[in-house]
Fold Calcineurin B homologous protein 3.
Amino acid sequence: MGASQTHSAYKYQDLMTKTGFSLEQIKNLHYRFRQLSENNETLSRENLENIKDLADNPIKKQIVEAFFDKRNQHQNEMGSFEEIGFEQFVMVMSHFRPPTPKMTEEEKLAMRKDKLHFLFNMHDSDNDGKITLEEYRKVVEELLSMSGDIEKDTARGIADAAMLEVASTNVPNMGPDDYYEGITFEHFEQMFKEVEMESRMHVRFLDVDTRTIHCGSSTS
């Protein structure tokens, strides 16, 4: 048993260092990865799209794409993967890890910025460093359409108005004919400055509660 534990620790040491997850947490994540991938070495979009808890999520597409977005691998790469292996899966899951009591203020600030980058990337679908009106509108429309009481044109109008409000806040001297290129990460960070999100940003749709990283028994 001791030798097996030592071997597992050695095998996952790099991931533990990169993500801050413990050996037990990574082993639990590996168990869930094997369930989702149907015991294959890689995970496809179809594997995640088949998760029942995601079926009615209005931003299902953005959530799924986040796992294949190279920007979420804590590197400076762009583009997306066709499929991901276990290491890429764990790197994405690390964005949902809550802060620990032992963290310094500097580490907590770094974690917060990392989480904000992850959320920003989910909405910046064309990787141009800005959340455009069209990207913002699409997300708002999807969220509003879930109510079933709002027409598409009305949802679009609400989205446009919300974006214009963001524009006037971030660029207060804009003229009526000025074109707002979109929300930059700096603007996005400013919008969330009063929101405590470090401990709230976690996922349960994978049958994994990232506050504890314990796996459920579901296989879908």
Notes: DSSP finds nine helices and four strands in the chain.
